[in-house]
Structure formats: C-alpha cells, structure tokens
Amino acid sequence: MSELWVLSGIAVMVLGFVLRFNPLLVVVAAAGVTGLAAGLDLHAIVSAFGKAFNDTRYVSVVWIVLPVIGLLEAHGLQERARGVIASLKGATTGRLLTGYLLIRQISAALGLTSVAGHAQTVRPLVAPMAEAAAEGQAELTEDQREEVKAMSAATDNVGLFFGEDIFIAIGSILLMVGFLEQQGITLSPFELSVWAIPTAFAAFFIHGFRLWRLDRRLDRKGAGQ
Amino acid sequence: MIGLPFVYGFAGLTFLAFAVLSLRDATNPKRWGNGAFWGLLALSMLAGDRLGDFGNGLLVLALVAIAGTGQLGRGSGGTAPEVRAERATRHGNRLFLLALVIPATALIGTFGFEHVPGLVNPKQVTLVSLALGALLALVIGMAWLRPHPAAPVQEGRRLMDSVGWAAILPQMLASLGAVFALAGVGDVVGQLMAGVIPEGSLVGAVIAFALGMALFTMIMGNAFAAFPVMAAAIAVPLLIRQYGGDPAVICAIGMLAGFCGTLMTPMAANFNIVPAALLELKDRNAVVKAQVGTALPLLVVNTLFIWWFAF
A76, A84, A210, B206: least buried by Cβ within 10 Å? Predict the structure, then answer.
C-alpha cells in the first residue's frame, strides 16, 4: 500500500487548515510532501509548482477591477446603493437576494459568468444593498451584519454554480464531452447541459427558502424591538 | 491578436502601481513586505514566461515567505464616510451606470468580438473584454469625477491590502492541483472510493459517485479535478457500463454534486475565502458556513436525481 503515501499531502492540507496556519504555507507544504511521496526531488517539485503557477495566472487577473471599484467607492457608490434600497418600500434582504439569485442564475445560464462576481458586484453593490435592507427590518447585531454579508456572497456562488452548466460552452460541459469521448461515448454539449436544469430549479427553491427564513428571523427580531 | 499577454500586461502594471504606492506609504510599518509582495506578483504577470519553471517556483516561495512570516500589513488611506456620503448625493444614480460599464463591456465584447475574427483570441475573449471594461470604466471615471490622478490606484491598493495574501490563494491551489495530478493522487482516491461500494448495489454505486464527487471536490477545491477521477472509477465502469445508466444524466448531475462540494470547502478559495476577505468579515469561513445549509440538501437532491432520471 505504499502508493497511499501520495495522499499525505491531503492530510497536510486538512491539518494545516484545522490548526489555522497561513494557508499559503499549508499549500506549499502539501505540495512538497506530495511530491516527495511520489519520488520527485526538490528541484522538480519547485519547478512543477512554478510552471503551474505561471500557467494559472489568469486566476488572479480579476484584481484589475479594484482601481475602478475603489474610485467608485470613494465617490459614494456603497452609500448610494444603501440609499436606493432604504427608499424602496417593501425591500427586504431575502427578497433582494432572491432577485439577485435569479438574475445570476439566468445570466450564468446564458454564459455570462464574469459579468457579476464578488469583486465586480457583491462588494460594491449587493452586500451594501442587502445590509441596508436588513437595517430597515431590524436593529442589527454585529453577528447579523456578518451573516447578511456572508449570505450575499453565498447567493452569488449558488447562482453562478447552478446556472452556468445550462450554458453549452462552459468549461465543465466541455470537460465532460472530452472525457466521455475518450471513453468511447459521444454526446453533444446540449445533451449534457439540459440535465443541469432540474438542479438549477432545486437550487433556486432551496436557497430561496433559506433566504425567506432569514427574512422571517430579521422581521421577528424587528417586531420584538 | 489581442490575448492573454495584453491582460497580463495590464494586471502586471496594476500590481506594480500597488507595489510602488505601498513602498511610499510611510504610515504602514510593513510597507517593505507589501511592496515586495505586490512587486513580485507584478514581475510574475509581466515576465513570468521568461523566468523559467524553477525561477517561477522560487518566486512563489518568496511570496509565501513574505505572507507566511506575517510581513504583509495594511496601508492607510481611504475616504472619510462624510465625504463619501456628500459625494453620493452629488453624483446620484449615475454612479451605478459607471459601475455597470465593466459588466456591460465584458458582455458586449464576449459576443461582439466573435464578429471581428482575428482581432481577439477567441479562447480568451472574456478575460480580454473584462480588462477592456476595467480600462474603459477607469477612463470614463477619471473624465467625469476628476479625482486626483493617483486616486484610483491608491483606492485600489487599499482594497488590495484588505484582501492581502488571500489574493493569490486561488492561484496557489490551482497549482497544487497540478502537483497532485503529477503524483497520481486522483487515481489512488478513485480506487479507494470504488473499493467501498457493496457488490451489486445500484443505490450504493449512485451514492458513492455523488458523495465521492462532493468529497473529492472539497479536497481539491475544484469539481473539474474531481470529475475525471470519480467518473473513471465509478460512473463509467459501474453506473454506465454495468447498470446501463444514461451517461448524460449521470455526468451532468454528477458534476453538479461536485459543485455542492465546492460550496463547502475553504479550498475553493476564490469563491469562499476571497469574498470573506473582500467583505472584511471577521470569520474567514463565514461564507462556507452560510452555504452548507444550501449545499447539503442540494447534494441529496442531486443524488436522487441521478437515481431517478438515469435508470
């Protein structure tokens, strides 16, 4: 069972996260342990990691939007977003986030995955709006403020993940088509993507139900005050 | 043809500006750390292809050494809340229009450049359009709001500092995935998962596949890495070949079971850890915790969907 040693990197990851070491250190340690277990020398491990880091630079490109977002925030974008929501009658955190969930799912299903996101929309718009709506419902504790913000980010993720696979040219669909072809099974992207639809509905209802319950908790607290 | 080099060049210059401003920020006691960190990232974006694999590896180790020894601080700056509120009243809802320039350009570019063959590399059209959108919004914003010329980079650096080391965690995890692949981690996990299924049990195989997708995605932080492993170990030999299930249903919904795992792991840093940093939450795992209540029931639903629709 000597091949099981290559799993030691996974143990390092789990342990490192549990013990709350800096995650960057944990990742490098896990890569080192895994590489050594697979019989690679240090030079080869550092090179393999460096090559992969260079090949995946596109992952960190999203930060180029920060100067614009920062400029807008300095000119009151978040305050404006809060103001708009505060002036709307009947705006609640749950309704607002459910609306965003729907928009995010539909736009992702049309292939527009990068149109919204945590840096592009959640931090400057969605989270401040959700917070302002919650303030209209109840006096917020620090924990509830955190919960509303975290739920805003969560709603973006749920909308993206369970919308994007309906689009035929998304990476995961193309990955499946390619994999199945290697196994001698020929399928078109469309045949796969239609089967993302039932789960998209389920995700909308499950997450929407949780947002409705969040609203009820906030309203009950507001009524009690 | 416009492609990734343009995008990386733009990103490199942005990080370089962050680095320079960090170094000049005398109020930040850790300004050397910040300057070196963003400066190395700028070097990677601008000249990564000329550093060689080992050189890039050393660059990564330097980044990790800076962050891991706590040399990253947070610079000062920012605009006072009263000033922001006053400006918000003055500029009104036109601020939203400017905010929407980035997504709108990304959208128009993604579809528009298709009709101009040869101009933009079709594989990278979304990233190029995103970069163009950020550039366009910046130009319009400078012309309309007339801030101090250094204001966008200064404000951007402040946001970047609040994200800190989490900014490169997604890229680091993607690289770790490559090392795992090289060491054959996936094959070993796949064999282990296939070994626990009771002989002749269709339900057992369906559950093992859906649960395996979610669990292995949680470990790898990425359903793309989990899919080929779990599909080769369980879906193709058992569900499709032995029990005759519909491959489209099994694979499509199996991938979505993996996405449920993505919602539940700090390893999917760009979706779960980065927003916590970006929203300045106290608990690094707050987003993961907010998602578990959706992910677990949805994983059960996906498992049932495979069982009902595929057989």
Answer: A84
